[in-house]
Amino acid sequence: MTGFDTRAIHAGQDPDPATGAVIPPLHLTTTYKQDGVGGLRGGYEYSRSGNPTRDTLQTALASLEQGTRAMTFASGLAAEDVLLRTVCRPGDRIVLGGDAYGGTYRLISKVQEPWGVGHLPVDLNDLDAVREAVAPETTRVLWCETPSNPLLNVSDIAVLAEIAHAAGTLLVVDNTFASPYLQQPLTLGADVVVHSTTKYLGGHSDVVGGALVVADAELGERLAYLQNAAGAVNGPFDAWLLLRSLKTLGVRMDRHSANAGRIAEWLLEHPAVGDVLYPGLPQHRNHEIAAKQMSGFGGMVSFRLRAGEEAALRVCERAQLFTLAESLGGVESLIEHPHRMTHASAAGSPLEVPADLVRLSVGIEDVDDLLADLDQALG
Ligand SMILES: *Cc1c(COP(=O)(O)O)cnc(C)c1O
Q1: Any catalytic annotation for residue 32?
Q2: How far apart are CA 108 and CA 112, in angstroms?
């Protein structure tokens, strides 16, 4: 197999056979001419069921995650919805990390629950608790997000895969924060990889999307069935933008990781800052696991303000080069207050996040400019 960056640029992306165009064409079409009834060219009949631009993206993503099949969707949550409805039935149960993305928790606790699918949050670092939680036969899914949002906890994917498989449960890994450049969960035993491609895979804050990637062909077939039957596919232009983004994923992630590492170290020294949460710091509680399963530590850094919530809000409002906004993973740096913004839907739940926490999505600007902005924002 060729290297990651080579696959990001070339997998599924041969020059167009009709014209030699180096970049795969953008197929903005809903339907396809048939050569006689049922005479499909390349299997294409209707763009919800299949579109060449989306297929190219799916081929490239499957290759980057070292899976056999990828399916892309209109958003990360649309991908998660198809996954959960494919594998869970009434009476089943989902065990999920206690700090999963707020939208994932909402989908599971508010949308799945009324259809009879239960859930149980656990601390994924407490392996005995995980073993106990997945033991009942009704546990269909063990859901792990690593690194997690916004607390940057890291879980041992290989160990969780063993625990899940011993109980006959699927291990799902939300790989949004790491991207396949830094971590490939299927190679560590995960059954399904989930992405919000809105984040690092898109990388330019201009396209919302999601993906599922699997190793098992039969599971891939079932997921692809609901992708078409429920229909929350991404459009061809969104797929084309993502293909453009994938080509630079490796160089972007290297710079995100380098900038975030510098910023995390700088924050450690700042008197107004309490805990700094970044898996690349040797003092991070899961640093060893991160170093074992990731090839870099990514661009997300969270930190707590010693003076509490008001101080955290003030930093978010004073920052200038860091834009105050939700989302993450773009080339530009963002700052936010998870308790009131991205994770507001987790308020009062076991997944509530501390109010003195600030989350940074560190972009690829010059790191000295980013440090100067944080310096003035922290006052
Ligand atoms: C954003 C995000 C999602 C949801 O994806 P959307 O594209 O917003 O639907 C899921 N998981 C993580 C870790 C995320 O950051």
Answers
A1: no
A2: 5
Name the residue ranges covered by the structural domains of the chain: 4-246, 249-378
Tens-digit pLDDT string for the chain (379 aa): 899 999 999 999 999 999 999 999 999 999 999 999 999 999 999 999 999 999 999 999 999 999 999 999 999 999 999 999 999 999 999 999 988 888 999 999 999 999 999 999 999 999 999 999 998 899 999 999 999 999 999 999 999 999 999 999 999 999 999 999 999 999 999 999 999 999 999 999 999 999 999 999 999 999 999 999 999 999 999 999 999 999 999 999 999 999 999 999 999 999 999 999 999 999 999 999 999 999 999 999 999 999 999 999 999 999 999 999 999 999 999 999 999 998 887 788 777 889 999 999 999 999 999 999 999 999 9
User: Amino acid letter at 137?
Assistant: E
Q: Is this structure's pTM higher than 0.85?
A: yes
207, 198 contact by CB (below 8 A) = yes
- Rounded Cα distance between 335 and 72, Å, is 28
> Domain spanning 249-378 has what CATH number?
3.90.1150.10
* Catalytic site includes residue 101: yes
- Residue among 77, 81, 197 to mutate when testing ligand 1 (max atoms within 8 A of CB): 77
Which residue type occupies 53? T
Q: Let me know: does 359 contact 335? Beta carbons within 8 Å.
A: yes
Fold matches, 4-246 and 249-378: no
Give distance in angstroms: CA of 269 to centre of ligand 1: 31
Tell me which of 55, 81, 174, 191 is the catalytic residue. 174
Q: Could you tell me how far CA 17 lies from the centroid of its own chain?
A: 33
Quick one: DSSP state of residue 113? Answer: G
Handedness of CA 23, 28, 34, 37 (dihedral sign): positive
Are the C-beta atoms of 59 and 11 separated by less than 8 Å? Answer: yes
Please give the CATH number for the structural domain made up of 4-246.
3.40.640.10
Looking from the CA of residue 77, the nearest atom of ligand 1 is 9
For the beta carbon of residue 283, count every other beta carbon within 10 angstroms: 9
Return the structure tokens found at 145: 């997000």
